[in-house]
Design a protein that fits this description.
single chain; about 290 residues; alpha+beta; Rossmann fold; Elongation Factor Tu (Ef-tu), domain 3; nine-stranded mixed beta sheet; about 20% helix; about 30% strand
Length: about 290
């Protein structure tokens, strides 16, 4: 038994997560898992989500950033929302502290990089990643891919085997040439206009709750019960503490588990009841109530 195998057997199994827009109807996710387990049978594979809307990179970025900070150190996250598969876009891998990310170079890692470099005090696990600890490579070493690479399924043929090799202790530097810049999504930032805070809806979850880009930190100093929240032609009165602060069927604003202002309907869907969609403007006006 070689030294690498001995070292692997003395370590806890590596965790590899998957975030894709593949769904579960077809065999795409299963094929990725088969590749990973063929290379590292001891890997623990965790599905973050396979229900990202097709080709919606920003949605994948949000879901990955919402979950990844809660995984243990040395987790390997694979994110494949890849409408540019087969084009000139690069496959890349990033390391932030002891955490790895394997993905197409299309911006899907934008939000998770920002979140891990700016740790939240409410995270269940401490994050101690700093800017100086971020490294990245262009995945251009074909010996770590499958022997035959499809032009339409890099998730199976490049990203899954690379993640498996990382889980066996292959260093990031061995997987490709170093890079110092990678694609970033052009995401809208909340801003202040006088005494108002202006933002927009960036994600709608399966409950129909509309998550905005207005982080809880922007609420500092505000009297939450007297903040008017304007969205979809409605003004909601105050930032509620919980969903049950209003009657069933009533809309409300509150701070989500992602620490961002959320628009919801108790026991219902804000997206359906209020007609809210991603990109809709949201304005907080202190003292409006």
């Amino acid at each position: 038994m070689n030294e690498l195998a001995l070292n692997q057997n003395s370590q806890p199994p590596a965790i590899i997560t998957l975030t894709t827009d593949f769904g579960t109807r077809d065999g795409f996710v299963g094929a990725m898992k088969g590749v990973i387990l063929s290379i590292n049978p001891r890997a623990v594979i965790v599905d973050i989500s396979h229900d990202i809307a097709p080709q919606q990179i920003a949605q994948g970025a949000f879901v990955l950033a919402s979950a990844a900070p809660y995984f243990p150190a040395r987790t390997i996250h694979v994110a494949v929302v890849d409408p540019g598969v087969g084009s000139a876009r690069r496959p890349i891998a990033l390391q932030i502290g002891e955490t790895f990310f394997v993905a197409p170079d299309n911006g899907v890692l934008t939000l998770v990089c920002a979140k891990l470099k700016t740790p939240s005090p409410t995270l269940a696990l401490p994050v101690e990643n700093q800017e100086s600890e971020l490294g990245a490579v262009h995945l251009n070493r074909a010996e770590f891919w499958l022997p035959r690479v499809s032009r339409t399924f890099h998730g199976r043929d490049i990203f899954a085997p690379v993640a498996a090799h990382l889980s066996l202790g292959v260093p990031l530097a061995a997987l490709g040439d170093p890079i110092h810049a990678w694609a970033q999504l052009a995401l809208a930032e909340p801003y202040r206009a006088g005494d108002q805070i202006c933002g927009q809806v960036i994600y709608v979850d399966r409950f129909g709750n509309a998550i905005t880009n207005i982080g809880e930190v922007l609420l500092a100093g505000l009297e939450r019960g007297r903040v008017g929240v304007r969205v979809a032609g409605r003004v909601l009165r105050g930032i509620a503490p919980t969903y049950v602060a209003v009657a069933p069927g009533e809309p409300l604003a509150l701070v989500s588990s992602a620490e961002q202002v959320e628009i919801a309907v108790r026991d219902g869907s804000a997206a359906d009841a209020l007609g809210i969609r991603v990109g809709d403007a949201v304005t907080l006006s202190p003292g409006e109530c």
